[in-house]
Design goal:
36% of the residues lie in helices and 20% in strands. The chain is α+β, with helices and mostly antiparallel strands and 134 residues long. The strands form three sheets. The chain has a two-stranded antiparallel sheet with strand order 1-2. A two-stranded antiparallel sheet has the order 3-4. The chain has a two-stranded antiparallel ribbon with strand order 5-6. The longest helix has 14 residues. The two termini are 34 Å apart.
């Protein structure tokens, strides 16, 4: 028994006729050009992630990144959180107040705080990939 297919219809005059929907950002269809590759990763039942125009040389690294994406995103979020730009450490009470302020203000920080740099974020991503264990 074959899998059921959901057919889409469009109205033509007074009738609805079946139509095929194909999609791709560039061509409007999910077709690849000759000599190109696409990686497909089933990250959960029914869930798919695609990477288009992957070359044989880059496929292993792209596949590793696709598998470790969640770990990478978590590491990047952690590395990119704003933090105080000061050499004088805060007291325990000050840290508690700052954490409470950040939560209460929805992520707003005092103006002397800085975000993680692109280097820190990329380092966190590379580290997450290297340490990721499926």
């Amino acid at each position: 028994m074959s899998n059921p297919v959901n057919v889409l219809y469009k109205k033509v005059g007074r009738k609805y006729v079946p139509m095929v929907v194909q999609w791709n950002e560039e061509s409007g269809r999910d077709q690849l050009n000759t000599g190109t590759f696409r990686l497909t990763y089933a990250y959960r039942d029914g869930g798919r992630r695609y990477e288009y125009y992957v070359t044989p040389a880059t496929a292993p690294m792209v596949a590793a990144m696709m598998v470790a994406r969640e770990a990478m995103e978590s590491a990047i979020r952690h590395a990119s959180k704003m933090h105080p730009n000061t050499t004088k450490p805060y007291t325990k009470k000050q840290k508690e107040l700052i954490d409470k302020f950040r939560i209460d203000m929805g992520g707003m920080y005092a103006s002397w705080w800085v975000e993680g740099s692109a280097y820190e974020i990329s380092e966190a991503a590379i580290k997450a990939v290297l340490e990721f264990k499926p």
